[in-house]
């Protein structure tokens, strides 16, 4: 009985905090639908606008991306991560000349909050779909390239639908955002699919203040997030309090990132989030997939309301600067 009531009360808390991040039904403009009626666009943009101006995060359901697709990417990614480091070393991030952000990040090399020790996570960034790239092709990993690439393209399609609705939210022509995201998946755009693996945490080895992922906001226009069932992701509210953003199966969690906040003169909010360590003694691992949407490198971001709230900035330069601020020494990248 005791456990039961504890569970119930935990569960209530969970649902309560969860209510702050709205769940929006995207069926009217899901993948495969090339058109959306004026009425449906109106209703979707009303819901997204409320979420992005008040919370900065939204769960979308009925996007057309299925749980099965997500599981497939997580499963093949996990096989990669579970290999010994020397097998992953050839794919190290910064070792690909034409796409320095592409590849594997080993644990504790990135601190998304530079005041904390390195994040307790590993990741694989798919930042280039160029046919000349070298991909992991080890035993049991067949299909790694195909699976990451096709999921990248699914996320690309979905983000274009979302960006169209976001322009509508602000009374702007759809092209305002879409024209700035024409090169996703090519050399002129930094959008990246990041597959994340949070290994078991050994409490005797954790450094002071270390987290799975330190407090940060994302850099680009928007981010699509898919999480495994283990919790940990928290989002800061306007009052400064952190609330949980648990995985909700069959949904995509979408958040506004910093360039989008700048672009909209602070109308859409890019909010701080983090991933906590599991409770002491909890040996579970965690996975997530983040599709970081970035405007084309050459695009100059100015406030879309015509104000001078922020000086113009070139999207590619901005990304590079932000990336370099969160890596430990020796992991800096520069223009190619
Ligand atoms: O793992 C997650 O759920 C989110 C990770 C994240 O926020 C990031 O990598 O930017
Ligand atoms: Fe993030």
Q: Mind explaining what this structure looks like?
A:
Mean pLDDT is 92; it is low at 1-18. Helix 2 packs across helix 5 (144-169) and helix 3 (67-81) crosses helix 5 (144-169). The strands form 3 sheets. The protein has an 8-stranded mixed beta sheet. A 4-stranded antiparallel beta sheet has the order 6-11-8-9. Strands 13-14 form a two-stranded antiparallel ribbon. The protein has 336 residues and is an alpha+beta fold. 30% of the residues lie in helices and 18% in strands. It is built from 8 helices and 14 strands. Strand 8 (233-236) and strand 9 form a beta hairpin. The chain has helices spanning 2-18, 38-54, 67-81, 85-88, 144-169, 175-178, 258-263, 315-325, and strands at residues 23-25, 57-61, 103-105, 122-126, 192-198, 213-216, 222-227, 233-236, 242-244, 251-256, 273-275, 286-293, 300-301, 313-314. 41% of the residues are buried. The structure holds 2-oxoglutaric acid (AKG) and fe (ii) ion. 2-oxoglutaric acid (AKG) is lined by residues 196, 213, 218, 225, 227, 233, 273, 275, 288, 290. Fe (ii) ion binds at residues 216, 218, 223, 273.
State the oligomer. Answer: single chain
Share of β-strand residues:
15-25%
Amount of helix? 25-40%
What is the mean predicted local confidence, pLDDT? 92
**Uncertain residue segments:** 1-18
Derived structural class = alpha+beta
The rounded distance between the terminal residues' Cα atoms is 62 Å
Q: Any ligands, ions or cofactors bound here, and which?
A: 2-oxoglutaric acid, fe (ii) ion
Number of strands: 14
Order of helices and strands: HEHEHHEEHHEEEEEEHEEEEH
> Mind describing the biggest β-sheet?
8 strands, mixed
**Widest beta sheet: strand line-up:** 1-2-10-7-12-5-4-3
Number of H- or I-type helical stretches? 8
Q: Which overall shape is indicated by the principal axes computed on the Cα atoms?
A: globular
Radius of gyration: 19 Å
């Amino acid at each position: 009985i005791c456990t039961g009531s504890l569970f119930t009360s935990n569960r209530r808390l969970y649902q309560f905090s969860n209510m702050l991040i709205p769940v929006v039904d995207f069926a009217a403009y899901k993948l495969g639908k090339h058109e959306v009626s004026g009425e449906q666009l109106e209703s979707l943009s009303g819901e997204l606008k409320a979420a992005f101006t008040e919370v900065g995060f939204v769960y979308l359901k009925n996007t057309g991306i299925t749980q099965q697709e997500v599981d497939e990417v997580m499963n093949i990614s996990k096989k990669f991560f579970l290999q010994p480091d020397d097998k992953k070393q050839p794919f190290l991030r910064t070792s690909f000349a034409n796409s320095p952000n592409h590849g594997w990040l080993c644990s504790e090399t990135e601190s998304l909050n530079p005041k904390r020790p390195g994040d307790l996570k590993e990741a694989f960034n798919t930042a280039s779909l160029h046919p000349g790239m070298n991909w992991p092709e080890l035993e049991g990993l067949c299909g790694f390239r195909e699976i990451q690439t096709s999921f990248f393209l699914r996320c690309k399609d979905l983000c274009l639908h979302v960006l169209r609705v976001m322009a509508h939210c602000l009374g702007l022509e759809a092209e305002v955002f879409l024209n700035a995201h024409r090169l996703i998946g090519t050399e002129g755009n930094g959008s990246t699919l990041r597959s994340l693996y949070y290994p078991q945490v050994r409490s005797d080895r954790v450094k002071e203040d270390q987290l799975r992922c330190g407090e940060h906001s994302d850099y680009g226009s928007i981010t699509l997030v898919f999480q495994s069932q283990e919790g940990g992701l928290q989002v800061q509210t306007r009052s400064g309090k952190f609330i949980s953003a648990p995985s909700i199966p069959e949904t995509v969690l979408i958040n506004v990132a910093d360039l989008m906040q700048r672009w909209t003169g602070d109308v859409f909010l890019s909010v701080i989030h983090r991933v906590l360590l599991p409770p002491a003694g909890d040996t579970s691992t965690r996975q997530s997939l983040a599709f970081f949407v970035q405007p084309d490198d050459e695009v100059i971001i100015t406030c879309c309301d015509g104000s001078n709230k922020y000086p113009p900035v070139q999207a590619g330069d901005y990304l590079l600067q932000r990336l370099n601020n969160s890596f430990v020494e020796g992991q800096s990248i520069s223009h190619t």
